[in-house]
Amino acid sequence: MSKKFVLTKEKKVFCGRTLFRIKALVDLKWCKKGDLGGFVEKEANLSQDGNAWVSGSARVSDNARVYGSARVYGSAWVYGDAEVSGSAWVSGSARVYGNAWVYGSAWVSGDAWVYGNARVYGNARVSGSAWVSGSARVSGWKCVQHGWMR
Question: How far apart are CA 32 and CA 42, in angstroms?
Fold first, then answer.
């Protein structure tokens, strides 16, 4: 298996974690060879398979994983044991953390937070200042824009 990205020497410390900017080694759905991406703590945060990508000033750390064709961008932060997969997008200033999963064609954007054991999947949209936590499930064509879902 050939690598699709490498960690560059550019790094920043964020909340006590040292994160490294990534650089694309091949053309992908979300970037071209040579493009700089966002920041990850370690290679395991972003799969070397598929089209998944982290861009902008987005961050992925701890044991969090981004894979499939998922995209994390803007200034979003995915951390803890969270997973973003499928064709899911996490953008803006959104946070996905804890043991939360965002997958399928779901989008989490704006200042939204998804955390705990929450699951956002299907074609669901979580945006604005919404919080999805605990064991909440948001699926199908549901849209949560403002408020709290537990």
Answer: 21
